[in-house]
Design brief:
This protein is mostly helical and 403 residues long. 70% of the residues lie in helices and 1% in strands. Among the domains are: 75 residues, Tetratricopeptide repeat domain (Serine Threonine Protein Phosphatase 5, Tetratricopeptide repeat, Alpha Horseshoe); 180 residues, Tetratricopeptide repeat domain (Serine Threonine Protein Phosphatase 5, Tetratricopeptide repeat, Alpha Horseshoe), CATH 1.25.40. The protein has 22 helices and two strands. The radius of gyration is 34 Å and the shape is elongated.
Length: 403
Amino acid sequence: MKKLGTCIVLMLCMSCAGPTKVGKEARANAHRRMNIVNADLAAQQAKQQFEVGQLDTAIDTISAAISKYSENGEYYLLKGRILLEQHRLDAAFHALKKSVECSPESAEPHYFLGILHQRWAEDDKALVEYKQAMELDSSHPQYLLAAAESHVALNQNKEAIDLLSSANQEFQHHPSVASLLGNIYLRGGQYDEASDWLENSILLGNNNKETNTVLAHAQFEAGRYGDCLSSLITFEEVHNELPISLRKLRGKCLAATGQIIEGRDVCLKVTRETPEDIGAWRDLGYISWQMGDYKRLGQCGKNITQLDSSITEGPLFMGISALHSGDKTLARKLLSSVASDNAIEGLDSLRHSPTKNTKLGVETPFTPNMQAKTVEGEGELHSKKEKHGAKPIVSADSDSDAP
């Protein structure tokens, strides 16, 4: 009995001594695990809120998750993305940098840092981040595309092409890669290459309005008028419409392939629908000139001058029309007002001596070699190639509304 009492006393003493070191560690680990579970649940909720556009609520929720467990780089990545959407760029930068620190092997933080640097117009720094994302994860084409686009933004077209061309075989057959290559070649004035890559992009499934539009413009610039007409037919069949910019191309392609009356009719209809479109009047003017319709040519020149008196074709068209009607004085005055640096071959001699160039001026329009903007918006001086049709009457519009 005495021994039993002693044991009871010892047991009571032990129970009053408090938790052991092992017990404390176990309790802390359990608390930590519970915090991680709660933080993960909060992060999932924040992601859902972010996806439905509840940005203020999402930022509060992910911040609560970080307060429970501050070692997960994914939490900082999500916070950075939310802050990006809120245009809080400085805070987003710090969150994404913290994500890199917590998850150095993750590619996504570098990708979004690249996007952030682009918003700051720091394309060189964006390129570094995109290439770092590529190194960490080579399975995602968006990292490759973003790096190539940064090269383009830095006017490094060759480097962009080399980067895309060196991509793995899987990416070589990615429609977005082919589309980007097409646009880069187009930007550089390499219209045949641009057409080929854009055609590949469409065949690979990138059959949307934008790509089809750019392809048609590239084919026109390449002098592939028959191909351009085919692309326009396909565009209209697929999308059940043909925008004004593409209808203007159709008119010029028809005229360039010998279907001049059909081309004239298309361009005439465009001018009636968009009477303030200088490019449309320019197109109609050159086709009218080619047809010998000098009355319409003069009207086109008059309309152009009314819209913008600085446009060369205004006095040029009216001057040729006056020359044909026999008003040599007016013709000389109008043609002399046309700048000699407009690059229209043969104009200088006609300006100075219109009576000696009546045949040249009346029967045959000068083939314009004007400064025309590509669909990327870059000015390029170029001459037309004779492919898939006759020599073009007019170059692509400098005021083209292509993307």
